[in-house]
Specification:
With 635 residues, the chain is of the alpha/beta class.
């Protein structure tokens, strides 16, 4: 049960379906090491990478057995379909899965009916997300049954055995019913239940075991029964795998770049540390290389991804530097790396790395001492292409030290919306949630961000009805929303998750009817505040908008987003060839000889003429670039 008050994406309980189709490259061999199923604490802390991970199924497979590498003849002409639910991180992971399968000779297809392997990448953040997956698996069971009936008819016609002795393969590795696999967070969380529940799934693969997919699929197709690999890793980042992106920049000018995986925060309500494992960061150099490649391919926006993206800390030693931070377009204005750090209190292990007043269950120095951190990465990524907008999600408020805020404000191409998940406005609820901060510390951070970054927008996450939440504690959340005036928010009623601290030590004692009422109250509050902010601060202003496609309601209108991540409907698909700050929409319309069509990936200056709580509406004033727009408006 939940709602979001904006159309934007976010790594939470959002259903999204995506499939991948592309010709396969040259096949590469691979191997797997099989271990026992399930996971205990030692598995959670295991340091093995995804390249040497485990699997087991309903048929007996010896532990640590090394199978022969997959050969091109065993999976030649195989097809696969990937369907994705959940957050941007899952979308990014599906791009990794598509790459792994292509490199093993698979052809990606756009429909499950045409696939030998149907893979569902899942979300486990809330019960509602999991129920969607169970429903989808029951739908896919009919596809499996149809394939099986067709195969038996063909075998009967050929006077072959139809007794079920060969239930999956027809002997040459190319026939039989499709394999249905469950990937991602739900796969790790439910493990055996997915394989045992009415045979809805043949394959269960956790988020750190995608390299093993070709072998696991082949094992099931070869008649070995079901298969599982849910081993978590503290090393796997898939840094050496180039994602297979479904859309070219001509179709979607934005791309995701995963920079870290896992989460160490251990919030009482959250299942992510148990489904995604410990935090680990990609080598700095591999991220810069991927961003540079995306720029060369023509992408105009990237989003840096991670379960706790701004806790990034690379200790691989792949890159070392001490260059100053340079403001976009002004190489005379430099910000020394050391001067950006807040004053350090030697007795406080959190002061050097976190926003003031924030703590965690672990000491950050263990990961961040002598590491390249998020602020340095953000600075360098933004330098790759000043005309490519850079966003990041999903962050934790603790990881917004002044250094990061200063970098955001000095870089024109870094998005000016900060996602700061509050979860609650009550200090006592935050303590039960193990969030590591008070209401007062959170408010201070938001006010500091607004002072540091002119025009910044703030978005958030909220959980209502958490264990023991009183009416007064709920009122604290409502008043926080009125104070901060969030321009976007993702709001949900609390859903208990197994394994979490709340499930072990607290009681889910708020009645569902009360949760629903409180949820509606915070939704109404957020929408009311966002509407007031948009009408006050946006109407009449000119914003730089990246064109992302057609409007949903009209082919003559376009849609895009501002640097503050606000959705904009553009009331025309043509505009002036070049935006000038002194120009106007009337000037553009009078001089039609200067009009040019707007295209996907264009930056356009848009004058906002109307706004609701989640969307701005405006007239295009002229095409522009990030540099021209911001330098012209600051002159």
């Amino acid at each position: 049960m939940g709602a979001r008050a904006s159309p934007e994406t976010h790594p939470q309980d959002i259903c999204r379906v995506r499939s991948y189709a592309a010709p396969p490259p040259t096949h590469e061999s691979a191997k797997r090491v099989l271990t026992s199923d399930g996971k205990v604490l030692s598995d959670f802390l295991d340091s093995s990478s995804g390249a040497s991970c485990g699997a087991s199924g309903s048929t007996a497979i010896a532990a640590d057995e090394v199978l022969h590498p997959v050969t091109s003849t065993s999976i030649l002409n195989r097809t696969a379909y990937v369907e994705t639910y959940g957050c941007q991180m899952n979308v990014s992971d599906s791009e990794i899965v598509a790459s792994v399968l292509r490199n093993s000779g698979y052809k990606m297809v756009d429909a499950p009916d045409a696939a030998d392997a149907i893979l569902i990448n899942t979300c486990a953040i809330r019960d509602g997300a999991e129920q969607k997956i169970w429903h989808r698996l029951r739908q896919l069971k009919s596809i499996k049954a149809k394939h099986e009936k067709q195969r038996k008819r063909e075998m009967k016609k050929a006077k072959l055995d139809v007794s079920g002795v060969f239930p999956v393969t027809d002997g040459d590795g190319t026939g039989g019913r499709p394999v249905v696999g469950v990937l991602g967070c739900m796969a790790e969380r439910l493990k055996n239940k997915l394989l045992e529940a009415d045979q809805l799934a043949d394959l269960v693969v956790g988020p750190d075991a995608y390299r093993d997919l070709p072998n696991l699929i082949s094992a099931v197709q070869g008649g070995e029964g079901s298969a599982m690999n849910v081993q978590l890793s503290i090393e796997e980042t898939y840094a050496d795998i180039t994602p297979v992106r479904k859309n070219s920049p001509n179709v979607n000018p934005a791309a995701f770049v995963s920079i870290m995986r896992g989460c160490d925060n251990m919030c009482a309500f959250c299942i992510v540390p148990f489904t995604r494992g410990r935090e680990r960061s990609r080598p700095f150099a591999s991220i810069i290389d991927e961003v540079r490649k995306l720029s060369n391919e023509g992408y105009k926006e990237i989003t840096l991804l991670g379960q706790n993206v701004n806790s990034y800390a690379d200790k691989s030693g792949s890159v070392t530097f001490s260059q100053p931070i340079v403001k976009s377009g002004d190489h005379s204005n430099t910000l020394n790396r050391e001067t950006l750090k807040p004053p350090v209190n030697p007795s406080d292990p959190f002061d050097m790395y976190y926003a003031k007043g924030f703590k965690s269950v672990y000491k950050p120095g263990r990961n961040r001492d002598n590491a390249l951190r998020f602020g340095e990465l953000l600075n360098k990524v933004s330098d790759v292409d000043p005309e490519m907008r850079v966003r990041f999600t999903s962050p934790h408020p603790k990881d917004f030290p002044d250094e990061v805020l200063e970098i955001i404000t000095t870089k024109n191409n870094v998005g000016k919306m900060l996602h700061m998940p509050a979860q609650s406005g009550s200090t006592s609820v935050l303590e039960r949630m193990k969030r590591g901060y008070t209401r007062e510390a959170y408010i201070d951070l938001c006010e500091r961000a607004k002072r540091t970054i002119p025009g910044v927008a703030i978005s958030s996450d909220f959980i209502t009805g958490f264990c023991g939440e009183s009416e007064d504690e709920h009122s604290d959340t409502v008043t926080l929303m009125e104070l901060i005036k969030y321009e976007q928010a993702f709001m949900f009623a609390y859903s208990l998750r197994d394994k979490t601290s709340a499930a072990r030590h607290l009681t889910d004692d708020v009645e569902e009817a009360v949760k629903k009422r409180r949820l509606q109250e915070i939704i109404d509050t957020q929408r009311s505040e966002a509407l007031a902010v948009n009408r006050k601060n946006e109407i009449g202003e000119i914003r730089c908008v990246l064109v992302e496609g057609l409007s949903k309601k009209s082919d003559s209108e376009l849609s895009g987003r501002t640097c503050a991540n606000k959705r904009v409907v553009i009331h025309s698909n043509v505009t002036s060839v070049r935006y000038t700050p002194s120009g106007s929409t009337q000037d553009v319309l009078r001089n039609s000889s200067l009009l040019v069509p707007l295209r996907m990936g264009d930056y356009v200056a848009v004058k906002v003429v109307h706004a609701n709580a989640s969307t701005l509406f405006g007239e295009p004033v002229g095409r522009t670039t990030l540099r021209e727009f911001y330098e012209g408006n600051s002159a």
